[in-house]
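S1.2 Input.
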Amino acid sequence: MLKNFVLALVLVNLFAVSAFAAKADVFFTKDISPAGLMAIYEKLGREATGKVAVKLSTGEAGNNHYLDPNLIKDLVQKVNGTIVECNTAYGGSRAATAMHRQVIEDHGFNKIAKVDIMDEEGEINLPVENAKHLVNGNYVGGHFKDYDFYLILTHFKGHPMAGLGGAIKNISIGIGSAHGKAVIHSAGKDVGRVLWNTAQYPFLESMAEAAKAVSDSLDHGKRIMYISVMNHLSVDCDCVSNPAKPDMHDIGILGSLDPVALDQACVDLVYKAPDGHSLIERMESRHGIHTIEHAEAIGLGTRDYNLISID
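S1.3 Output.
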C-alpha cells in the first residue's frame, strides 16, 4: 500500500514538473525604448543569424501608430535585418508596390534598413498541414524563402475585423501576398477577390492556419522569434488610415519564442489594465481570442506561459 502511494506521489510530481515545463516563457519590460527592445531580444536567447527578415507593419498612409523607426533602428541594424512587408488586399495606399514604397519612405523605414516588398515579384505556396480551411495552401510573398531567419516585430493593437492584431496576425495576414491575404480573409474560398462577408470563426481560424504554415516552414519555429510592442493601443489596426485615438496607457514590450503565448500575454495585460475597456470591447465583439485558441489547438504554441519581468 505504501509503495503504491509513493509511486502515485512520484507520478503526480512528475506530471506537475512536466506541466510547468510546458509553459512558454514570455519576457516583459515596461521600458519602451531602443534599449528595452534590445534587452528583450537578448533575453530570448536565440540569435538571429544568416539573412534576417524583420517583419513589421509599415502602416497605412495617414496612420501614425505604427512602430517608430527610431524605436526599432538599433535592433534592426544589430541583426543586419531587411524589413519585409507584403502588399495589401483591401486597396488603400499600400495595395501596389510603387505606392507601398512611397509610404515606406514617408514613414522613414527605408532610412534605417533595406526594405523588401516580398510579393513584388509574385508569391509562393506553403503547405498547411491538416488544414480545415486553407486546403489549397497558404500564399506568401515570393521572396519569403530568401531569408534564413525571421524576427517578427509586432505593434500589438486592436483590429476592425480580427479584434486584435498580434504576432499571429503578423505572420499570417502580414506575410501573406495580396492574394494570400484574400484567401485568408475568405477562409480559403477566394479566387481573386476578397470576400469580406466570410463568417468570423472561419476567418480567425484561417489566420491561425496560415501562421502555423509559416512557422512550420521555418524549421517548425526554430528560425523565428517574436517581439511585440504594446504602445499606442488603439482599437484600430495600423492598416487603418484614420485610426481611433488610443484611450489607454502604454504597457511595455514583450518577447517570446512562442507566438501563441505572446499574444495571450498581451491580451491578458489589456484585461488587467484599468483603462483597457475600449480595446477589450473591440477584442470581444470580434471574438479575437478565437484566433489564439485555434492556434493552440492546431499546435502552433501554448496559451500557458510564464510572464518574466526583466525590469
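S1.4 Remarks. The longest strand covers residues 149-155.
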